[in-house]
């Protein structure tokens, strides 16, 4: 693992490396260098498996963070590549030429986070939300509870309990009387 | 046997009703037997009859066109045609049917006729699974008709007649005069072919519940489906009665008929409960292989030895 | 048959494009009066004893239907049978949470089923949204979109609970208390409005017979 990280630092001068375990690390890189690094990792360093692409919304710093998770089947190590995108008009280079199946991930990210991947095949097709008009639902400023109450006819009479207190009452009803 | 027209119609009606109900009960028994093989209780034996009542009592139905409408009609016409030209019980005036009017070729034609009508109707419903099911059904049918036809040729050479009643009459001299013993090769070829006709496992490639959900009748519903299910009972018993007549000495009373058709059907059910399904090409190759050779041998043995 | 209550107003089919509209039917569903008292009683008995379930699992609850077919629970005893096509099925088991995308398909399948047809809501999610009550993409109350005959509570209910639910449904059918098809036909506009409120790209006919 350390070897590959040193190589990354040598080749691409990538500084902030976060090593979580002996076999898992995350690096943050610039968005335009990502295809370059991914190609090198895939073709020369045996990170042949793209496990997933995921996004995290950070409204506090006006950024969206994309994580590309790679797996090496020989060393059994995971390497996550992180990219920070501008939140107002998030746009990312499509990497569907490296892994064909990435197009589906990108479709999902377009729909759930509103990230654009120019050139990705079938990007505008529906993934799960057919004809969604609101702001993308995985953005943190989207209030899912309010949307649900507004749209889906909530049935009145829903109660919530604090699980700890509730179970204490249920399991030890005598404890209350002792007080 | 000379009756008036009216009497003939009533007799035919009684005969058809009894055969249909017995066929449906046989279907229910089959479900029960398969369930016991799985270690289940299974549905009651009259379940197919309840299903038919329910399907006919559906409030709505949709037709997809004329051929779609006529498909089940052709199917049940095939079933009735097959049945009515077979002596259900030999020598009985009620259950003798119109066996003097038609011969073996007519019956074989009717077996094919229903399938063709069904193919046209299912084709018009436009469901892809229907088309696949029809293609499978017709190709399998072509395959299993071959050993059956060879076996029938052998019988015709043996008895010198195409009339089913005459063939039954020739077998009446006790157990050893059955075709089963006088012409065993033809019987074996035909029995294998019967498994294909009954479309239970391993030859259930037409209905194939897990691959092409239920094949040709995918779009059929309500009273169309009710008609198809009624025909399933009737056609089943017609085929069993035909085989009973040709190879197992026919039946002279209703108890013998029930016993013989039951045993014949149980053979299919036991084979079905023990084997998984063939693929289409496996099934066709199977029928064109050993059963066809047995059929050819049956013809040669009867004709030249 | 004169047991129909005919409503002849045509449907708009606004979701379809102009050239597609003539290809689809624009008739409304009709509600049906029961036949004679004793005839209907006999037919209800037959319907109750031959329930064909549409093999469409809409959520995690679908996994509870499979054990029913096995030797342990054996639903065939009660005349229940799975059916692969909506045309032949009579019972729609909504298995758990239902997303909007699924709801669109469910409506289509439900309307293709031939009446009398019954809907079973399985699990808490169909009653009030269950654990997905505040999700942006799952419905809260099934009875606003389809006429539900019976709910089975739990998350997830075990197969025994399902069997109990089916037996209750059979009793209701025998007593003639289930009227889902007619209810759907009578309140068709209300159901359609609710459905169209959440299914955003309505690109199918208003009623899929």
Which series of helices and strands of chain C comes N to C? EEHEHEEHEHEHHH
- Give a short account of the largest sheet of chain A: 5 strands, mixed
The domain count of chain A comes to 1
Q: Could you please say which CATH topology of chain A applies here? A: Beta Polymerase, domain 2
CATH architecture of chain C: 3-Layer(aba) Sandwich
| Beta-strand residue percentage of chain C | 5-15%
Helical element count of chain C? Answer: 7
Mean pLDDT of chain C: 85
Q: Would you identify the regions of chain A where 5 or more consecutive residues have pLDDT less than 50? A: none
The assigned structural class of chain C equals alpha/beta
Shape of chain C: globular
How does this model look, in words?
The complex is a heterotrimer of chains A (179), B (305) and C (209). With 179 residues, chain A is α+β, with helices and mostly antiparallel strands. Chain A has a single domain, classed as Beta Polymerase, domain 2, CATH 3.30.460. Chain A has six helices and five strands, in the order αββαβββαααα. In chain A, strands 1-2-5-4-3 form a five-stranded mixed beta sheet, covered by helices on one side. The N and C termini of chain A lie far apart (57 Å). Chain B has helices at residues 5-38, 47-56, 66-84, 104-125, 128-159, 164-170, 179-182, 184-198, 222-247, 254-274, 280-288, 290-304. Chain C is globular, with a radius of gyration of 17 Å. Chain C has a single domain (37-198), classed as Rossmann fold (3-Layer(aba) Sandwich), CATH 3.40.50.12280. Chain C is built from seven helices and seven strands; from the N terminus they run E-E-H-E-H-E-E-H-E-H-E-H-H-H. The two termini of chain C are 18 Å apart. Chain C is α/β, with parallel strands linked by helices. In chain C, helix 1 (37-48) runs antiparallel to helix 5. Chain C has helices at residues 37-48, 66-69, 100-112, 124-128, 159-174, 180-186, 188-198, and strands at 4-5, 31-32, 51-54, 80-83, 91-95, 118-122, 150-152. Classes of the chains: A alpha+beta (179), B mainly alpha (305), C alpha/beta (209). The B-C interface holds B 31, 35, 38-44, 47, 50-51, 53-55, 57-62, 209, 213-214, 218-222, 225 and C 32, 43, 46-47, 49-50, 55, 71, 74, 76-77, 79, 81, 84-85, 87-88, 90, 114-116, 181, 209.
């Amino acid at each position: 693992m350390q070897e590959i990280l040193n190589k990354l630092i040598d080749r691409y001068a990538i500084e902030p490396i976060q090593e979580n375990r002996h076999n898992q690390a995350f690096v943050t890189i610039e968005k335009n260098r990502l295809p370059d690094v991914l190609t090198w990792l895939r073709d020369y360093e045996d990170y042949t498996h793209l496990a997933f692409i995921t996004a995290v919304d950070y409204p506090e710093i006006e950024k969206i963070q994309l994580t590309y998770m790679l797996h090496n089947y020989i060393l059994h190590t995971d390497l996550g590549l992180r990219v920070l995108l501008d939140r107002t008009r998030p746009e990312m280079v499509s990497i569907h030429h490296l892994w064909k199946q990435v197009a589906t991930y990108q479709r999902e990210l377009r729909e759930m986070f509103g990230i654009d991947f120019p050139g990705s095949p079938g990007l505008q097709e529906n993934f799960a939300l057919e004809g969604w008009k609101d702001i993308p639902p995985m953005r943190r400023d989207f209030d899912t509870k309010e949307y649900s109450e507004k749209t889906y006819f909530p049935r009145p009479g829903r109660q919530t309990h604090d699980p700890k207190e509730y179970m204490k009452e249920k399991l030890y009803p005598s404890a209350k009387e002792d007080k | 046997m000379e009756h008036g027209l009216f009497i003939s119609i009533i007799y035919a009606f009684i005969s058809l009703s009894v055969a249909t109900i017995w066929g449906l009960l046989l279907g229910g028994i089959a479900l029960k037997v398969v369930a016991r093989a799985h270690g289940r209780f299974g549905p009651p034996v009259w379940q197919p009859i309840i299903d038919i009542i329910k399907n006919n009592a559906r409030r709505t139905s949709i037709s997809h066109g004329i051929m779609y409408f006529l498909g089940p009609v052709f199917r049940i016409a095939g079933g009735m045609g097959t049945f009515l030209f077979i002596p259900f019980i030999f020598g009985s005036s009620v259950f003798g049917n119109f066996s003097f009017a038609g011969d073996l070729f007519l019956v074989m034609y009717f077996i094919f006729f229903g399938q063709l009508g069904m193919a046209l109707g299912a084709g018009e419903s436009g469901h892809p699974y229907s088309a696949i099911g029809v293609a499978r059904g017709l190709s399998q049918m072509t395959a299993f008709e071959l050993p059956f036809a060879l076996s029938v040729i052998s019988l015709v050479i043996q008895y010198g007649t195409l009339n089913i009643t005459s063939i039954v009459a020739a077998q009446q001299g006790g157990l050893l005069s059955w075709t089963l013993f006088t012409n065993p090769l033809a019987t074996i070829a035909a029995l294998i072919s019967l498994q294909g006709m009954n479309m239970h496992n391993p030859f259930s490639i037409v209905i194939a519940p897990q691959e092409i959900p239920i094949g040709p009748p995918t779009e059929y519903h309500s009273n169309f489906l009710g008609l198809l299910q009624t025909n399933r009972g009737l056609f089943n018993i017609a085929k069993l009665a035909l085989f009973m007549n040709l190879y197992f000495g026919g039946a002279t009373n209703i108890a013998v008929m029930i016993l013989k058709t039951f045993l014949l059907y149980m053979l299919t059910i036991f084979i079905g409960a023990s084997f998984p399904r063939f693929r289409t090409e496996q099934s066709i190759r199977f029928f064109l292989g050993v059963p066809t050779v047995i059929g050819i041998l049956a013809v040669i043995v009867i004709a030249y030895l | 048959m004169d047991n129909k209550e005919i409503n002849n107003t045509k449907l708009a089919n606004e979701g379809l494009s102009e050239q597609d509209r003539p290809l689809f039917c624009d008739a409304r569903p009709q509600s049906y009066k029961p036949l004679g008292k004793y005839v209907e009683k006999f037919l209800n008995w037959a319907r109750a004893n031959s329930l064909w379930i549409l093999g469409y699992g809409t959520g995690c609850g679908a996994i509870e239907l499979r054990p029913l077919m096995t030797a342990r629970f054996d639903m065939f005893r009660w005349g229940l049978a799975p059916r692969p096509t909506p045309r032949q099925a009579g019972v729609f088991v909504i298995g758990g949470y239902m997303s909007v995308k699924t709801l669109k398909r469910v409506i289509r399948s439900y309307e293709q089923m031939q009446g009398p047809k019954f809907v079973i809501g399985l699990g808490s999610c169909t009653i009030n949204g269950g654990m997905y009550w505040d999700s942006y993409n799952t419905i809260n109350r099934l009875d606003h979109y389809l006429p539900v005959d019976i709910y089975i509570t739990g998350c997830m209910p075990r197969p025994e609970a399902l069997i109990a639910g089916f037996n209750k449904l059979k009793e209701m059918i025998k007593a003639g208390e289930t009227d889902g098809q007619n209810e759907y036909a009578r309140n068709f506009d209300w159901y359609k409005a609710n459905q169209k409120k959440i299914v955003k790209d309505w690109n199918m006919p208003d009623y899929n017979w």
